[in-house]
Amino acid sequence: MSAVGIDTGLDLSTAPAGPSEISRRLESLPASGYLWRLVVLLSLGGWFEVYDLFFTGYIAPGLNRSGLLTTTTQAFFGFSGIGAFVAATFAGLFVGTFFLGFLADRFGRRSIFTWALLAYTAASVVMACQTTSAGLLFWRFVAGIGIGVEVITIDAYLTELMPSRMRGRAFAINQAVMFTAVPVVAALAWWLVPIGPLGWDGWRWVVLIGAVGSLAVWIVRLYLPESPLWLARHGREAEAVAVLRKLEAATGAAISPRIVAEGRPSAVIRTAGFFDIFKPAYAPLIILFMIFNLCQAFGVYGFANWVPTLLLEKGITVTKSLQYSFIIAFAYPIAPLLAATFADRCERRWIICGAAAAIAVFGIAFSQFSEPALLIASGVLVTTSNMTMSYAYHAYQTEVFPTAIRARASGVVYSMSRVSATFSGFIVAYMLRETGVGGVFGLITAAMIIVILAMALFGPNVRGKPLAA
Q1: What are the CA-CA distances from residue 6 to residues 28, 44, 191, 263, 303 (Å)?
Q2: CATH assignment of the domain containing 60
Q3: Residue 5 falls within a domain, yes or no?
Q4: What is the reported pTM?
Q5: Which 3 state secondary structure label does DSSP give 8?
Q6: What 3-state DSSP class applies to 464?
Q7: Rounded distance, CA 210 to CA 378, Å?
Q8: Distance CA 383, CA 424 (A)
Q9: Cα–Cα distances in Å, from 143 out to 123, 214, 378?
Q10: Calpha distance 54→231 (Å, rounded)
Q11: 161: pLDDT confidence band, cut at 50, 70 and 90?
C-alpha cells in the first residue's frame, strides 16, 4: 500500500491516516507555543503526583513525632517504622505500574491521566484521617497504586505529543514544572510538622493541602487533546487527524487538504497483550530497563525519601533538618531547567551514565560532611544529578517502545524501580542503624556503578529517531 502523503497519482481524499502516517506528521511538527503549553498543562497535572510522592520523606519526622511510626525498627521488615511507610508507597506504585500500566493503552492517555489522579487524591485524604499505623500504611498503599498509573500515563502522553528533536527538552521542562512541588511540600512540612495547627498533626495538613489543590485537574483536562497516535491505533482516525490538524495549525505547519474517512472496526490494529512486550524485538529492552530501574531507584529514592531522616542521624534537630531539606529541595525544579540546555544534544544513555557517576561522588561527600553549608551544597548536587537522570530515563524508557505497548512496557520496566524502592525503605533503615549515613551512600554508589555499566554497554541510541507507530 502506498504511503499516505506521498504523491502517487492516486486519489487520497478518503484514505485513512494510519499510525505510521500520524507518527510521520507528528515528527515534522515545528516548535510552537501551543506544543509547549501542552507540556506545561500535562506537567501541572503531574505536579500533584510529585507532591503526593515526595511528601513521603518530608512528613516522616511528623509521623515519628505523632507516635504512629518510629525512625528505625529492630526487625528488618518492621511494619512500625518509617521504612514501612516508604515501602507501602512503593508497593502501591509497583501494582500501579506493573499490573495497571495497560489502562492508558486501552482507555486512552487523557482519561486515565484524569481518573488516576483523582483516585490517589481520594486515598490520600482517607490516609490523612488515620489514627493507627495499619490504617496509615494501607491507605498509603492504595494511593501509591494511583500514583503509579499516573506516572506511566504522563510519560506515554508526553512522548506521543512531541517530535523526537524536542522530546528531551519537553521531558526536562515537564520535570522542572512538576518538581516545583518538592520545595512547596518541603516548605509546608518545615512550617506545619513542628507545630500541628488547630491541635491536628502537622503532617495531616501537608497531605490534605495537596489533595485539595489536585481538584484543579478538572480544569487542566479541558485543554488537553487525546494522543493522536493512540486514536489512530484504535481505529479513530478522523479524531486523530482532527487533533493533528489542530497541532499543525497552531504550529504553522502545512496542513494536508485531504478528508479522512472514519476508521472501521476491521481496520483497527489488534490490541497488544501482556506477553507481546516479551517478543524477541522487545525482550532485550525489557530486561535492560528492568535492571536499570532496580538500581536507579536506590540513588533517587534512597536519598530523596530519607533526606530529613539522614540529617537527623547526623545530629541535626528536626526543625533544622526540615529547613536544610527545604533548601535542598529547590534543586528539584532548577536542575531539569539546566538540563534542558543539552537534553537533545546528547544520547540519553550517556546523560544517564554521567548523572549516575555524579550521584555516587556527591553522595559520598554528603555522608562525610557535617558543616551545614557543605551538607546543603552536596545535597543540592546529589539532587541535581538525580533530576538529570530522572528526566532522561523517563523519556528514554517510553520512546524505545512502539505505541501499542508503550504504556504497558514502560510500566512493567518502571515497576522494577517500585520494587527496588519498596525494599530500599527497609534496606536503608537497616543500613542506617548498622553502618550509619556512610553505609547508606556506599550502597547507593554500588547501585550507580551497575547503572553505568548497563547503559554504557547495552543502551540503544534514540537521538533524532521518530516513534515506532
Answers
A1: 14, 38, 61, 20, 52
A2: 1.20.1250.20
A3: no
A4: 0.81
A5: coil
A6: coil
A7: 29
A8: 18
A9: 5, 13, 32
A10: 33
A11: very high
Domain assignment present for residue 6? The answer is no
Cβ proximity of 418 and 87 under 8 Å: no
**One-letter-per-residue 3-state SS of 297-327:** HHHHHHHHCCHHHHHHHCCCCHHHHHHHHHH
| Element holding 247 (H helix, E strand) | helix 237-251
3-class SS of residue 30 = coil
Give the cell for residue 392. Answer: 532522561
Q: Is the model's pLDDT at 7 over the cut of 60?
A: no
Domain that holds residue 448: 19-458
- Cα–Cα distance measured from residue 355 to residue 346, given in angstroms and rounded to the nearest whole number: 13
Q: What is the DSSP string of 191-216?
A: HHTTT-GGGS-HHHHHHHHHHHHGGG
Q: Is 304 in contact with 386 (CB distance < 8 Å)?
A: yes
Number of separate domains in the chain = 1
Whose cell is 514502560? That residue is 410
Range of weakest confidence among 113-127, 236-250, 266-280 = 266-280
3-class SS of residue 370: coil
**All cell numbers assigned to 45:** 497535572
Choice among 74-88, 112-126, 157-171, 278-292 with the minimum mean pLDDT? 74-88
* pLDDT, tens only, 416-440: 988 887 777 678 778 887 887 788 8
